[in-house]
Amino acid sequence: MSLHVHKYGGTSVGTTEKIQNVAKKLVACKKANGDQLVVVVSAMSGETNRMTELAKQMQATPSAKQMDVLLSTGEQVTIALLCMALEELGQEAVSYTGGQVKIITDEAHGKARIEEIITDNIQADLAAGRIVVVAGFQGVTKSGAITTLGRGGSDTTAVALAAALKADECRIYTDVDGVYTTDPRVEPKARRLSKITFEEMLEMASLGSKILQIRSVEFAGKYNVPLRVLSTFDDGDGTLITYEDDDMEKALISGIAFNRDEAKVTLEGVPDMPGVAAAILKPISDANIEIDMIVQNIAEDKTTDFTFTVHRNEYPKTMQILQNICQELGAKKVTGDDKIVKVSIVGVGMRSHAGIASQMFSALADEGINIRMISTSEIKISVVVDEKYLELAVRTLHESFGLSVE
Ligand code: ASP
Ligand code: MG
User: Fold this and answer.
1) Index of the ligand 1 atom closest to the CA of residue 151
2) How many structural domains is the chain composed of?
3) Is the dihedral of CA 359, 360, 364, 369 positive or negative?
4) Which of 168, 224, 355, 360 lies deepest, with the highest CB count within 10 Å?
5) Residues with CB under 6 A from ligand 1
């Protein structure tokens, strides 16, 4: 008998009817395979946002602690409704909030990390043939305060439970039928991948493919939990996220990721001497602005140009901070552009093949797309291009690396 953890996201449990459908699916699954089932659910779609709006009407910046008390109720509604639906089908079920399971987290309200999960009660329920329904996205501190794991955190609850219970598979049921080679809204020829590695998925996720919370993929990789993304609404095998193995598709590149929310800033004519990069970036990180790519030019006249990218929302603030630094450092001037995007090719196949970068750059050049910045990692090459080229760049690379459906 195998143990499966299923997770159903907000759109899968968005109405009472949909919750009833999930209940039917679970009962059918249990009948067919005799599997032990632990089910993690999100709040019904829109609920977390609705409550966040309510909070804003009370206080401009409510405390993270009270936000956790508020937002955790969304998932609590779903577990109760799903248990009712299961019982109505004659299936014994038991609901648990995060605190009731004892999903112990640290004290970081709003972005808590799971430290320990006590599985004794769940195991007893499973042995008694019950379906166990757990509220996603939440935990409890050692001293008993309710915490939440950050937006999209139910994915992480599911993976963490799967790891703690040594489940055979963790299935994330959602409104898409798997992980695609790229966003089908940009490239209609995109196709579903049957398998992808944890590492590749992390790169795809951090680059803006928002199917899974990034932390859940990290967790799955660390504890080697086979993770499958599949549709609640259609049949199909979805995409398995797992370790690299021999029968992984022999593609060089697994996918094309992109991120529209980018902006780049440059400090021109900075004196080229030790400590300058730190002096530029310290005030940026002090302002809690995350930096992505960094490029420093080779100095010709004892000065250098220093360029980096930030989230587009942070562009005005970053420009302002740089103006100050510019004066302090006696640099020439600050320039910037918030109409840029990042496009990346991702694939473990890149490790063992030379020439991938040049293939990428020639493909873009053939379409007259100018590359503004480049960065690489072991399994990813990213370029910054003008926003107007996003679609063209994605489709060109998708075609060039043979990812398109024939
Ligand atoms: N309900 C939470 C959110 O919308 C957690 C989740 O759905 O994973 O972020
Ligand atoms: Mg989600």
Assistant:
1) 9
2) 2
3) negative
4) 360
5) 9-10, 42-43, 48, 74, 136-137, 151-155
* Ligand 1 closest atom vs CA 154: 8
Domain that residue 286 falls in: 256-400
296 within a domain of the structure (yes/no): yes
Which ligand 1 atom sits nearest the alpha carbon of residue 213? 8
Q: Indicate which ligand has the atom closest to the C-alpha of 77.
A: 1
Q: Is 301 exposed, middle or buried (0-12, 13-18, 19+ CB in 10 A)?
A: exposed
The residue contributing the CA closest to ligand 1 atom 5 is 152
Q: Is residue 40 part of a domain?
A: yes
User: Is the same domain home to 23 and 169?
Assistant: yes
Question: Which tens digit of pLDDT belongs to each residue from 204-259?
Answer: 876 656 788 999 999 999 999 999 999 999 989 999 999 887 665 567 899 999 99
Query: What tens digit of pLDDT does each residue of 295-309 get?
Result: 998 777 889 999 999
Residue nearest to atom 6 of ligand 1 (CA): 152
CA distances from 194 to 100, 239, 242 (A): 36, 5, 11
Q: Say if 154 falls within a structural domain.
A: yes
C-alpha 148 – ligand 2 centre gap (Å): 14
Whether residue 167 is found in the same domain as residue 260: no
How many residues can be counted in the chain? 406
